[in-house]
Amino acid sequence: MLISILMLMNYSQTLVEQFNFVILLATLTTLVPYAYAAAAEMYLFVSERERFSGRNLTRDLVIAVLAFAYAIYAIVGAGTDVIAKGFILLMLGVPVYVYLKWRCRSRGQVAASATTGPRPADRALPMCR
To answer: Rounded to an integer, what distance in angstroms lies between the CA atom of residue 106 and that of residue 114?
Structure first.
């Protein structure tokens, strides 16, 4: 539904331009978690250095830095219009996430912890797992 709204916002564009916009938007939505994962890996390597060996740490840290740099480069390359509308889409997802988490907690279907064990599968909503 949200993509339909964005398509209506671009109604003056040709079909090819709209297709390119949708492709760039889809690329942007995959690059955001990619950048977060690369940044999390860098943080893990720096904050818990003792858990990793020296040679592999250096190699993996360089790969994580390059992956993060590539993600930022590709995000910037998508263009300001795509970035702005992609940000709006991401922010519109936050209230949906909050509502679903609230619904899980109100039904007592919070995710299983190590101490309580798994919840029965027939009770849990997919978002609550």
So the answer is: 21
Query: Which of 24-38, 70-84, 86-100, 110-124 is predicted least confidently?
Result: 110-124
Whole-angstrom distance, CA of residue 1 vs CA of residue 8: 11
Give the 3-state secondary structure of residue 86: helix
The residue segments making up the domain with residue 14 are 2-93
**What pLDDT does residue 49 have?**
80
Are the beta carbons of 125 and 109 closer than 8 angstroms? Answer: yes
Residues with Cβ < 8 Å from 71, sequence gap 6 or more? 31, 32, 34, 35, 38
How many domains does one find in the chain?
Answer: 1
Total-model pTM: 0.67
Residues 55-85: tens digit of each pLDDT: 778 888 899 999 999 999 999 999 999 999 8
CB atoms within 10 A of CB 74: 16
Residue 112 lies in a domain: no
CA angle 42, 77, 80 (to 5 degrees): 110
